[in-house]
Model the fold of this input.
Amino acid sequence: MMTESADQHLRHVETDVLIPKMMRAKAKERCHEEVKDFEKCCKDSGLTMVVKCRAQNTKLKECLTKYYKDPEFYEMCKQEYLEQKKEFQETGVRKSSRSSSKLPTTM
Done:
């Protein structure tokens, strides 16, 4: 676990871009029903989606905003980011590179 002093070493891009990006991805996962409903409405409505999907869009925004404004959710994402950063510094391998070991499709 990282200490308070390690938190002070977060760069501007980490606090303002990378951690919020992780928050958006995790919030989307947690709001999967709202995302699914909004996507279905948009696909079914075509060009009229702006008018027809307002209710689904409002529900989706409310769900996502709940997570974006939650300080505990931010802390959870920040800690996960710090763990990934520490692991990358130790191994030189990004998490996504390790978890998706693709085999060649041709031999």
